[in-house]
Amino acid sequence: MLSARYQQALDYLYSLVDMESRHELSPEVLFDLRRMERLLEKFDNPHLKIPCVHIAGTKGKGSTAAMIASVLTETGLKTGLYTSPHLIDLTERLKIDGVDIDTEAVVEIVDELEPVVNAINDRAEFGCLTTFEVLTAMAFIYFAKSGADVQVIETGLGGRLDATNVVCPEVAVITLIGLDHTGVLGSTLSRIAGEKAGIIKAGSTVVSASQPAEAALVIRETCSRMGASLIEAGSRINISCRGYAGSAQVFDAAGDLANYHIELPLLGSYQAANLACALACLEALAAKGYRISKSQIEKGLGKVKWPGRFQILAAQPLLIADGAHNPEAIGALLKALEDYLTGARPDIRRCTLIFGTSRDKDIAGMAARLHDRFDRILLVSSDHPRAAEPETIGCEFARYGRKTEIAENVAQAVKSTMASAAHDELILVTGSLFVAGNALASRRTEGLY
């Protein structure tokens, strides 16, 4: 049970403009970095006191951030990690050396922030501070108070006007760019890439994943205009997957500084691209004078944790939760699943899908990729305010003649399906990080995770 003071802190945070819970995003109202700068000035600019790695992208930015942070912790640096959204509890968003912020620290920082935030919002000179902006300020304050040596900061949405884009990073990383949040970021890859490339600062070092041609051109042109040094991870880091060792993928990687043998406890073949970005970033930091050895990179990557992404929650029947929430991510997940089943679980004979997503997502595009891949499909609604109704989702699957079932909620769907499934059955829970988080929470409640 949450303490009363922590619940009060949460209530205050969510009483602000909470864009993650809104059904529609409105860019002209939302984004103005001046209010973020004004807030941080009141706390003596904590974001500028600690060296930073700043990460944007459509897919893989959280996994990449977790990899980089895990290695930096392994080197002995006290490492802050800020990510979003959370799966179960808000404390997951702020970590130091892999440990979530405790609720007492949340309460203390919210108590400090509240009068300042209220004063800024009363004037609303540049609009009102949002929940995400205040959470971002909390992260910077927490890392500074805790004496962090370095901070790894993941953008929330876009990059150019994202609340995190007040930092001056040692390295900026742009993971794979795809079509998502098109109503805010633009409907083309070049427009979206322009928003992501907004994290590139003059004279900075930039690591980019292998991008679609449109996006790659924008990133190259931005780096040229800003005098930034661009490292294209796909051409600088050579990655080979060697198979599986238990619940880890085994990679050999060749970089500029060393050859690596890595057992990465994050499944999904798409993690190879994220690994390339992480290695390129770490080698760039080493070139800047950070003491990062080959052994520390291998050990740190072997310890990385990033829940809700191709996460195995049970082995027999095989229960996997993944937060894929757009057609491209679903396609990558299905390819990764095929590779994993072939290489590690050839015994699987039947596949069940538990699927739910948010109203603002491309439901039709995801249904197009999923409709013919599963023997049984259960539709669910997460407990998030933006969750799509199962009946709405079902209409998209019905276009392909697929019959679907509706479950009361994610927990009920997981419990009933696990109870009736055979040992050689796969149950995949996907469509949203919120759905994946509900699945994790249900297993934790039952003492099974």
Please describe what this structure looks like.
The protein is of the alpha/beta class. The protein has helices spanning 4-15, 27-30, 33-41, 61-74, 103-123, 131-145, 182-185, 189-196, 213-226, 233-236, 271-287, 294-302, 327-344, 363-370, 390-398, 410-420, 433-445; strands at residues 52-56, 79-82, 94-96, 99-100, 150-154, 171-174, 205-208, 229-232, 238-245, 248-254, 259-264, 311-314, 318-321, 350-355, 376-379, 405-406, 425-430. It has an 8-stranded mixed β-sheet, sandwiched between helices. A 6-stranded mixed β-sheet has the order 12-13-17-14-15-16. Helix 1 (4-15) packs parallel to helix 5 (103-123) and helix 13 (327-344) packs parallel to helix 14 (363-370). The longest helix has 21 residues, at 103-123. The relative contact order is 0.11.
List keywords for this structure.
alpha/beta; UDP-N-acetylmuramoyl-L-alanine:D-glutamate ligase; Protein-Tyrosine Phosphatase, Chain A; eight-stranded mixed β-sheet; 17 helices
Q: What's the count of strands?
A: 17
The order of strands across the largest sheet is 4-3-2-5-1-6-7-8
Q: What is the H level of CATH, i.e. the homologous superfamily of the largest domain?
A: Mur-like, catalytic domain
End-to-end gap: 18 Å
Report the helical percentage.
Answer: 40-55%
Class by SSE composition = alpha/beta
Total domain units:
2
Indicate the overall shape.
globular
Rg value: 21 Å
The biggest sheet, with number of strands, parallel, antiparallel or mixed sense and barrel status, is:
8 strands, mixed
CATH topology of the largest domain: UDP-N-acetylmuramoyl-L-alanine:D-glutamate ligase
